[in-house]
Predict the structure of Endonuclease domain-containing protein.
Amino acid sequence: MTLPERLLWSRLRKNPEGIKFRRQHPLGEYVVDFFCSRARTVIEIDGIAHDMGDRPSRDARRDAALSGMGFRIFRIPASEVLEDFDAVADAIFRACRDVPPPSALRAATSPGGGGVFRQEYSQNTSPIGGGGPPPSGGGGGGL
């Protein structure tokens, strides 16, 4: 692990707010820097080498493949982690915390399911005025 990855891992591994992260986690044919299963989120820390040679196109293909598997990808420059790893870690926590777990989404959208999650949103509490769960953010991007 690089220094930026070690600094970030020192925060992520503490399972803040019960959010679990894995490091050097295999997904298909790839191994990602960090992974949050609950939020289906991949976090990649990119050093200067990611800007050189064919790395940008390789990273783009990798991101497309991972997105195609249903994962969100956050690419964070290593320099940002070195400047303020606490702020980067906090942004990652917020991004992963604010995504409902997949089991809640399945329950809310299943014909007979829903349980507490469905009841919680059945009283028109959705930010868009409907009765369903709040819309989820999609795609990848930076933090």
